[in-house]
Amino acid sequence: MLNCLVGLAEDVAGLEDRREAMSIETLPALRPARAPWNKGRIIGQKRPLLPKHVWSIRVRLEMAENRRDLALFNMAVDSKLRGSDLVCLRVNDVYAAGRVKERASVTQSKTRKPVRFEITETTRLSLERWIKDPEMVGCEYLWPSRLHASPHLSTRQYARIMRDWVLSIGLEPSAYGTHSMRRTKVAQIYKKTGNLRAVQLLLGHTKMDSTVRYLGVDLDDALSLSEGIDL
């Protein structure tokens, strides 16, 4: 009887060992931790271009006689549109009755709300030259793609073009992006006037909080504006 009990205990112990071994085998293999997606990258808001940067890029594009990129660059600065809206512009959005409009309006893809923008004389001249270019004959979109898969530039193509612009004047490309173009003019407007409401309207923001965050307005900015008022 004692021998039977001892044998039974050994069988139970063996079964437990086998179960433990099986559970260990079925555990998922440990994988090395992935490096953080932002390791080695500069993140956060992209810097706006300064006026000297705008003129430097513009001069280089004029010297290169790159009509499309010059018109695209000028339009990006004036319109303050998101890249996704800029690349989808149609010729008739900015051109009517044989001339470039002084003001235009488009519906934003993100908010489905309309936003208006000015087209300055410099931009109008570059747009007119581009629209009348032989490459634009029969084109519906203002920035037709040179790839057959898409009727217009993609946001990725636009980002690559933007990267070339900043590289051409010696800037660090990781610090700038397509949102730099959207922020460039409004940053100067806010710096010179402090008018957040005007900037909100120009960007097509629904809430003022969005504009404050977009510009990175802080207490120092508010104090600087206040110091400029002497009563």
TrEMBL record:
The keyword Nucleotide-binding does not apply. InterPro entries: DNA_brk_join_enz (IPR011010), Integrase-like_cat_sf (IPR013762), Integrase_catalytic (IPR002104). SUPFAM superfamilies: DNA breaking-rejoining enzymes (SSF56349). Residues 49-227 form the Tyr recombinase domain. One of its GO terms (biological process) is DNA integration. Keywords: DNA recombination. One of its GO terms (molecular function) is DNA binding. It holds the Pfam family Phage_integrase. The keyword Manganese does not apply. PROSITE patterns: TYR_RECOMBINASE. Gene3D superfamilies: Intergrase catalytic core. This is Phage integrase family protein. It comes from Roseinatronobacter monicus.
